[in-house]
Amino acid sequence: MASSNPMGQQAAVCDLCKHKEVKLLCISCQYKLCKECVGNHTTEELPKVHKVVKYEDRHTHFSHQFCMTHSDRQCDTLCTDCDIPICPGCLTGHHKDHSNEKLPKEFLTKRKEILEDNEAMEESLIPKYTQEDVVTRSKIANLSFSYKSMEKEMATYKRKWEEEVKKIFARFASELHALQGDDLTPFKCHEDKIKTGIKEMHQTLGKNRKLLKAARVSEILSYTSERDQFQSLPILELEPNPPALILNSEKGKPSRFQLEDLISLLLPPTRLPFTSLLPNVQKQLLDKVAVLATVQTPFHAIRDLACAGMNKVWVNAIGDYEDTALSCFDICGDKLDSVTVGSFCNGLTMDSDGNLLYSEFNNVMTYKNGETNEKIEIPDGWEAMGISCSRSGNVLICLMNVENEHKVHQYKDKACIKEFKCDENGEKLYKNGEYMLYPQENVNGDVCVVNHNSNSIITVSSEGKLRFRYDGKDANLTKDLNPNAFVTDSMGRIIVADEANDCLHVIDQDGKFLRCLEIPVLTKPTGISLDSRGRLWVGSKDNGAIKVVQYAKYAE
């Protein structure tokens, strides 16, 4: 039986019986043989003589071509009529009247290269790919088991409720299956890549064996090795991360059923008021963020990100040509789509219908299914900078003029419905400067803006009243806050990327500092977005990598 050794290689098995370990090699036929099968092989195809050597001595014969007729003699001559190598004995035999010449040295070199390629794929590369396939299938099985376990829990819990709540569980089942499909997709894609690599190597092996058996000099001389394309084993830097399923039922209290941010409560009979019976559902910050995946883009640096659903992200990169194109990647790092912008792109976001919105100097454009259209026309004298789409579907756009003045417009469809420029006392909200601003609407309706010119977060109410400014001093870090991107989450927390201190600041919706989050192996965070699972995607200005992290979880 084949067994793995410490080098990750696998013992070769007999080409005839397919299960016993190889001890010998037929140089004439390039067959690997066990001791039990060597007798049967050497008696077949008589009167052909088979030259058999010990398998561990095979490398000493890689540089020699033994005659197919006189197997104990080496070939040094090329029969140009037959295009095969022959030995001196053949010159006086079947080939005595044929044209011949000295066997090219490059033939033996190429032949040796083919044998080494075959050996590398059989004994090293295919076992490595096979092992990676086993690991991937194990992850898929474990992840599928997690989902099946949750389905059983859902079914058990469902039987405790009345008939009226069947519709609720149908909704949860649909949500769970959708999450499962999204979760399994990158693993299945990776499995397909591994299986394709194994299949292609077996096909190459088959072609190489036929090439060696035919021993056509011209074909062997024109051989091109394909081994290099298989040397780099594809690795998926993604660990299974099934969603949180919370079941909580206590006598006299509401029954709570929660899958991620989808929640349902069954209240027991009680007298009014019953507000105190409602559970305080909180998504608590983790003590240490968990890196779930690393998306390596081909770019040198990330400027801005916009998650599209669960496993996709649009990227606005920094560079010579990257400035004029936006690219969409999946969580495996595969490029799915791209759109060329008419000029420098300042910001991007996703609207409530799943369309990509991005700001150019004079317009806000929308892109979906290969079509680009103008969404909003910017007022004369102003340029569109940062952009975000609120939970209500309205669009926030930061604007800047030639005097480097800033203001924020809120749009409903194509109409501006609010302007944020001065506070209730007539004072400017946003310090003048050359750097662009980024806006976000919080869950309480506040409009939050990152102003890199003042290195602060300015938050106003929906009526335009100044609520607070955050400058990072409460974090007590060695360097001043250097913000260039931020998001607000479902708990109203504001998460700010601090390029100077290589961390994320987390403050609550009232401006109170909560903590700093550090992401392992990520420096100069710039570009940050939340996906539909509530996971943070954080880009790097250093190397173009994007980290997908879990920073919070729902309390039991």
Strand order of the largest sheet: 10-33-32-31
In round numbers, the mean pLDDT is 86
Radius of gyration: 33 Å
Could you estimate the helical fraction of the residues in percent? 10-25%
Class based on secondary structure composition and strand pairing: alpha+beta
Which ranges are low-confidence, i.e. pLDDT below 50, for 5 or more consecutive residues?
A: 1-8
SSE layout and pairings?
Elements: E1 24-26, E2 31-33, H1 38-43, E3 52-54, E4 77-79, E5 84-86, H2 88-91, E6 100-102, H3 105-158, H4 166-214, H5 217-221, H6 228-231, E7 245-248, E8 255-259, E9 262-266, E10 283-296, E11 301-307, E12 312-318, E13 325-330, E14 335-340, E15 347-350, E16 356-359, E17 363-368, E18 371-377, E19 383-389, E20 395-400, E21 406-412, E22 415-420, E23 437-441, E24 447-451, E25 456-460, E26 466-470, E27 483-488, E28 494-498, E29 503-507, E30 513-517, E31 525-530, E32 536-540, E33 545-554
Antiparallel strand pairs: 1-2, 1-3, 4-5, 4-6, 7-8, 8-9, 10-33, 11-12, 12-13, 13-14, 15-16, 16-17, 17-18, 19-20, 20-21, 21-22, 23-24, 24-25, 25-26, 27-28, 28-29, 29-30, 31-32, 32-33
Helix pairs in contact: 3-4
Structure description:
The protein is of the alpha+beta class and 556 residues long. The chain is built from six helices and 33 strands. It has a four-stranded antiparallel beta sheet with strand order 10-33-32-31, with no helix packed on it. The protein has a four-stranded antiparallel beta sheet with strand order 11-12-13-14, with no helix packed on it. Strand 19 (383-389) and strand 20 form a beta hairpin. The radius of gyration is 33 Å and the shape is elongated. 30% of the residues are buried.
